Amino acid sequence: MRTTSNPARRRRRVAIDAVMVLVILVLVVQMWLLTASLESYLAGHHAVAVPALLSSLALFAICGFLYRLVLRIDRLQDPDDAGRSAAMPGPWRVSSDVGRPPS
Amino acid sequence: MDPKDGSSTKPAWAEEFSVYASEDAYVQRRQFTKFLVLTSAGMVAGQAWIWLKSVAAAPRTEWPEAVVARASDIAPGTVRFFKYPSETEPCILVRRTNGELVAFSQKCTHLSCAVYYAAERDRLECPCHEGYFSASNGRVLQGPPPRPLPRVRIEQRGDDVVALGIIEGEGE
Residue B45's domain spans which residues? Predict the structure, then answer.
């Protein structure tokens, strides 16, 4: 497997790492919230259920927003891709010839 | 697509299965993040389930009255067992060493083991994980139980001890 020191690719990795850490943090809060509200429910305190649900929804929205950021990062054009693709030998080469029947 | 025309240069399979280690690590992290987001959705579903259960399970207001023991049969420091409000709900009636009569659900709030009365220490004890409850109000004194023991409301009518209802999750 090859490695690369392409700065654009490195930035993408840093970005995804940051997003992943944030999503994990949000998830930990959601897990705590679920545990606490289940505990309250079992203790007979039903009033906690609605605010807990709304809070969990808000946290899920944050997760969704962060994931959309990941998708945006995905769509960013890597300036090195074109050159790399052209330089790839054999079946790894990606061009308009791929999938076209031989003439 | 041709790389020279400036549009997308790679098909989806080349994005997902790159020969570059760093690219592969990126894809793995992205997929893991996607999994985490789905887990987050699962948490919301769990909260919604708790909310639905809360809506469906309206707090019980009507409790049956039941004679559960004769007060004169219970010496200080001893107990009687009974089922209340249904046959599947074991309870314990305690005559404390000071003479007071109290009753609780016998199921530990940790993992539903049966609690017993330790007269010498005047407390209810769960033998499974050493959870201790106050004999006066069911409050947790020590151990893993997260909630107090549900207390059975009782009244002494003549020699009869009558159960009137259950007070969930609160001490005095």
Answer: 3-56
Interchain contact, A4 vs B20, CB within 8 Å? yes
For CA atoms A92, A95, A99, A100, the dihedral sign is: negative
Q: Please report, as a single letter, which amino acid is at residue B127.
A: P
Q: Tell which residue, A29, A52, A78, A97, has the closest CA to residue B15.
A: A78
- ipTM of the complex as predicted: 0.71
Query: What's the pTM?
Result: 0.60
The domain total for chain A is: 1
Residue of A nearest to B48 (CA): A53
Residue at A63 is within a domain: yes
Closest residue, chain A, to B4 (C-alpha): A82
Each residue's pLDDT tens digit, B154-170: 999 999 999 999 887 65
> Is B57's CB within 8 Å of A30's CB?
no
**Domain identity same for B74 and B159:** yes
Q: Which of B10, B14, B41 sits opposite A60 (nearest CB)?
A: B41
**Residue A61 is assigned to a structural domain of this protein:** yes
pLDDT of residue B108: 94
